[in-house]
């Protein structure tokens, strides 16, 4: 008994010593074979498909090559004693192999085995492996030996599971660290309370010009002397602010608080994209400017030709078509210029805007256009004091675009309704029409530049496809939202939501 406890203690020490699986199992099998004064012992481990993933053998006498071992294993596992133990999920003793049909005698056996004891390594109903001890004499093992081998197998199974979990975690960690280290985006993780740097990938080291590894456990302020970067780490999560570095590079950071890890800042260098965007804007400005002048000249010459007189009716009609096309091109150029201006607008003048006034003005301005099309244009704005903060000209422009569209696309005798309301945080401007509606598959693209839905009957309506992009850009500059609900042949409802400065309902 004393001896058995000593062995279990020794084995437990071995199993806790290190996490190297091979060393660990080799020592366990050595100790077990010695204790049982056996001829040989082996531990085999299985993968999830019950195939042998590892085979560790200890022999007191004689030897068996790895090649021989692997050939034997397949048969033993399906037919032999090992197969029996696996199937029954418990250990057992073979007192005399020559009288027990569970023992598989394979050809050219290099040594004789006459008695065997084996026990499964199992955890939570999973068979992880098998430990087998053999002897060349019959009746070497007794039934009473089984509990000890079971205890050894139990301990080995726990250690094995721990080692497997450790390797899995280690593997995941290595994978993750390879991803973090090879990404081009700079990643910095800091402690949420003291701002000390916990992790910085090579891209971040390069960005901050910090020596490799010199950042660990130092406050971020000490590691980076760039004020702008210190601001980044202190950003509110989910804010989308761009940062300009002294060397001109532009970063788009995103900050996330990761529970139990820290504050993670991911910095994406968008300098190249910005440069491209600037080039695009400059190109549009130059190009539209150069187009505007010849168009004005064409328009002038059309008028001159009309004044010259002696034109046939057909010629007058043709000239009118040319004039309309020129007008459409001018609208397109004007819209393009406006959109580019909006996109590159740095500062805008702002003040409190009483939205009821804005909507009234828009309603009045479009009344003549509505009358020409026999469309009833009405305003519902009961709340006087709904106030948002922003640029009045731009907000008016956004509303006008929606109202203009509603009248433009609605058939004569229809209705267009402008409604002002609020939810708790936002002022809501709704423009509702009884027009042709927009097919649902086209709705996701409706705010894209140059997108025109081209619903039947609307093809003759001139436009640039830029109006709604302009509205969306204006609304987003004001931290607002825009959306549309529409049903074909019923109508469309566009809604702009803007942050409330004063809520009319509370006054
Ligand atoms: N009130 C509306 N009813 C139906 N279709 C609309 C309405 N408003 C916009 N659309 C569709 O969305 C497209 C994009 O609108 P917009 O950007 O203002 O461009 P434009 O009016 O110059 O064509 C329009 O071409 C039209 O197909
Ligand atoms: Mg439009």
Fold and architecture overview:
The protein has 507 residues and is α+β, with helices and mostly antiparallel strands. It is built from 13 helices and 17 strands. The strands form four sheets. Strands 2-1-5-4-3 form a five-stranded antiparallel β-sheet, sandwiched between helices. Helix 2 runs antiparallel to helix 5, helix 11 packs parallel to helix 12 and helix 12 packs antiparallel against helix 13. The longest helix is centred in the middle third of the chain and has 38 residues. It starts with a helix and ends in an 8-residue tail after the last strand. Magnesium ion binds next to helix 12.
Structure described in brief:
The protein has helices at 2-17, 21-36, 66-78, 81-88, 146-182, 202-208, 220-223, 227-233, 271-308, 313-344, 355-372, 392-409, 467-477, and strands spanning 40-46, 52-59, 92-94, 115-123, 126-135, 186-190, 197-200, 243-244, 250-258, 262-269, 351-354, 376-380, 387-390, 415-422, 426-433, 481-487, 491-499. It is of the alpha+beta class.
Identify the strand order in the major beta sheet.
Answer: 2-1-5-4-3
- Gyration radius (Cα, Å) is 41 Å
Helix count equals 13
Question: Could you give the count of β-strands?
Answer: 17
- The helicity comes to 40-55%
Overall mean confidence score, pLDDT:
86
Instruction: Give the overall shape, derived from the CA principal axes.
Output: elongated
Strand content: 15-25%
Secondary-structure element pattern, one letter each? HHEEHHEEEHEEHHHEEEHHEHEEHEEHEE
CATH superfamily of the largest domain: GAF domain
Quote the CATH topology of the largest domain: Beta-Lactamase
The major sheet is characterized as: 5 strands, antiparallel
- Given as residue ranges, the uncertain stretches (5+ residues, pLDDT < 50) are none
């Amino acid at each position: 008994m004393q001896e058995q406890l000593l062995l279990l203690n020794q084995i437990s020490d071995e199993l806790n010593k290190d996490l190297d699986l091979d060393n660990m199992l080799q020592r366990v099998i050595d100790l077990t074979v010695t204790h049982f004064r056996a001829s040989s012992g082996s531990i085999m481990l299985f993968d999830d498909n019950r195939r042998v993933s590892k085979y560790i053998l200890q022999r007191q006498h004689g030897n068996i090559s790895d090649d021989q071992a692997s050939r034997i294993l397949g048969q033993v596992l399906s037919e032999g004693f090992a197969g029996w133990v696996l199937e029954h999920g418990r250990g057992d003793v073979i007192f005399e192999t020559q009288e027990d049909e569970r023992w598989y005698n394979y050809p050219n056996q290099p040594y004789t085995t006459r008695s065997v004891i084996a026990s499964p390594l199992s955890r939570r109903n999973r068979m992880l492996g098998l430990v087998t001890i053999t002897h060349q004499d019959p009746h070497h093992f007794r039934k009473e030996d089984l509990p000890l081998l079971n205890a050894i197998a139990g301990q080995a199974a726990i250690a094995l599971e721990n080692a497997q979990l450790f390797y899995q975690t280690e593997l995941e960690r290595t994978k993750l660290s390879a991803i973090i280290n090879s990404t081009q985006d700079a990643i910095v993780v800091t402690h949420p309370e003291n701002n000390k740097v916990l992790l910085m990938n090579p891209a971040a080291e390069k960005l901050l010009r910090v020596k490799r590894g010199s950042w660990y456990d130092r406050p971020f302020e000490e590691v980076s002397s760039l004020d702008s970067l210190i601001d980044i780490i202190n950003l509110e999560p989910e804010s989308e602010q761009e940062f300009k570095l002294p060397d001109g590079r532009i970063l788009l950071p995103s900050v996330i608080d990761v529970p139990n890890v820290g504050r993670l800042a991911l910095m994406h260098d968008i300098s190249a994209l910005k440069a491209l965007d600037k080039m695009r804007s400059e190109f549009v400005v130059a190009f539209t400017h150069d187009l505007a002048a010849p168009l004005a000249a064409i328009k002038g010459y059309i008028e001159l030709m009309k004044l010259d007189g002696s034109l046939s009716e057909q010629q007058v009609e043709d000239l009118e078509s040319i004039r309309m096309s020129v007008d459409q091109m001018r609208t397109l150029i004007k819209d393009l210029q406006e959109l580019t201006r909006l996109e590159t607008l740095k500062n805008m003048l702002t003040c409190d805007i009483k939205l009821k006034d804005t909507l009234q003005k828009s309603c009045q301005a479009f009344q003549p256009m509505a009358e020409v099309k026999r469309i009833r244009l009405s305003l519902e704005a009961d709340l006087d004091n709904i106030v948002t903060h922003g640029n009045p000209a731009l907000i008016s422009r956004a509303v006008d675009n929606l109202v203009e569209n509603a009248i433009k696309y609605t058939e004569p005798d229809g209705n267009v309704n402008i409604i002002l309301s609020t939810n708790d945080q936002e002022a809501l401007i709704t423009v509702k029409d009884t027009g042709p509606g927009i097919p649902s598959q086209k709705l996701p693209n409706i705010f894209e530049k140059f997108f025109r839905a081209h619903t039947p009957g609307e093809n003759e309506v001139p436009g640039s496809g830029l109006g709604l992009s302009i509205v969306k850009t204006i609304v987003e500059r004001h931290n607002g939202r825009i959306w549309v609900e529409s049903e074909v042949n019923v109508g469309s409802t566009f809604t702009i939501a803007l942050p409330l400065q004063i809520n009319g309902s509370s006054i």
